[in-house]
Amino acid sequence: MFDRYEAGETAVLVHIDFSDDERREDLVELQLLVESAGARSVGVITGSRRAPDRKFFVGTGKAEELAAMVAATEAKVVIFNHALSPAQERNLERVCHCRVLDRTTLILDIFAQRARTHEGKLQVELAQLRHMSTRLIRGWTHLERQKGGIGMRGPGETQLETDRRLLRGRIKNINRRLDKVDKQREQSRRSRKRSDLATVSLVGYTNAGKSTLFNGLTSSDVYAADQLFATLDPTLRKLDLPDGAVILADTVGFIRHLPHDLVAAFKATLQETRQAELLLHIVDCADDNMQDNFDQVQDVLKEIDADEIPQLVVCNKIDLLEDFAPRIDYAEDGTPERVWLSAQKGQGFDLLLQAITELVGNIVLELTLKVPATGGHYIGQMYKLDVIEHKDYDDLGNCIVKIRLLDADWRRMIKQSQGELETFVFEASETDVIL
């Protein structure tokens, strides 16, 4: 077992091309990740394989080539642009005589450096512990003696088992603390619902310019830099529109094959995205991988059940293109579909605000529902959203409930109930509100 690398240390990078799209990664993106982590690349090993080698991932010959480069460059760490199994990591460390990291561990390290708030630090630690729990190395073998006889009795538990028990305890403790933070966030969301303010969430591939756009729109000072995962912690600000206002939420950037441990750990943060009425999908239109990055974000949105929320695509960084002016592209039904702008230059902000105004559901519904006794769980959902204005019961035991909520929230509830809620409505009205 080797010590974890420190910022500024030298690294050899390993990138393998696979014919399988599920394993395909981008070498340039790996170099950006390494730079963001603070390490310095002193060499790159590349190759092609049809499938990973079970022992070394790269094959015996390539592992020997890697070891030779590590010795020649005196690199302190080897970083793979792929996910490695614990056994592959250990086998490579024995050959290279240095620490070996995979893509997931590298991303976790970057998240650990970027986290600033209490919640963000807890989420990163949770993801790291979950990842580490699969990579505990058997050690302290002298504690394994459980034979009889004087001086031969061990503690009855190996060090590996002790480490796992301590990890489980720490993970359980962090989950409790994150649940508490999540309840506080839920209270804040209810307050916003009561004020009839819709939430618009920024999503997109990391380094697409989300924080720069957020700062430009809201006159905030969220940290923004030309690096991957510059900001992690969600930030919410009120955004004034020509006809009112909304809540704008800046969230963590996505990346291809975002580690599942991170998705699970950042569940509370990503909840801001799942509860939004509109997603602004920021894309770097000057990036050659624009479409691929767009698809990767859509995959993550699907994973967190946010793929059905209406989206407005924001094509950022038009200042890097030749002869390109800000504009709005409209869909066949006349609704805004795409906005072209430059967050860095502040070009096209007025068009974006216009498009948001047209898309955001600024209609508040007042509904009276007759919910039978079998629909009690729907009443619970309404209490959770804090939309109940009045509740009573008729002689047949039906719950007569009057609710007030945004049209977007009502449509989301209808979808979740597979249309059943709509059959309970017997009185409805709607009003346009100044958001």
Automatic annotation (TrEMBL):
Keywords linked to the UniProt accession: Coiled coil, Cytoplasm, GTP-binding, Magnesium, Metal-binding, Nucleotide-binding
Entries under Gene3D superfamilies matching the protein: 6.10.250.2860, GTPase HflX, N-terminal domain (3.40.50.11060), P-loop containing nucleotide triphosphate hydrolases (3.40.50.300)
Compartment list: Cytoplasm
Main location: cytoplasm
Domain (Hflx-type G) ranges: 198-364
SUPFAM superfamilies xrefs: EF-G C-terminal domain-like, P-loop containing nucleoside triphosphate hydrolases
Chain positions recorded as Mg(2+) binding sites: 211, 231
Coiled-coil segments on the chain, per record: 164-191
InterPro entries cross-referenced by the UniProt entry: EFG_III/V (IPR035647), G_HFLX_dom (IPR030394), GTP-bd (IPR006073), GTP-bd_M (IPR032305), GTPase_HflX (IPR016496), GTPase_HflX_N (IPR025121), GTPase_HflX_N_sf (IPR042108), P-loop_NTPase (IPR027417)
Binding site for GTP: 204-211, 229-233, 250-253, 316-319, 342-344
One GO MF term: GTPase activity
Required co-factors: Mg(2+)
Cellular component GO terms, alphabetical: cytoplasm
Purpose: GTPase that associates with the 50S ribosomal subunit and may have a role during protein synthesis or ribosome biogenesis.
UniProt similarity note: Belongs to the TRAFAC class OBG-HflX-like GTPase superfamily. HflX GTPase family.
Family matches, as NCBIfam families: GTP_HflX (TIGR03156), PRK11058.1 (NF008280)
Subunit structure: Monomer. Associates with the 50S ribosomal subunit.
Protein name: GTPase HflX
Species for this entry: Shewanella denitrificans (strain OS217 / ATCC BAA-1090 / DSM 15013)
Gene that this sequence comes from: hflX
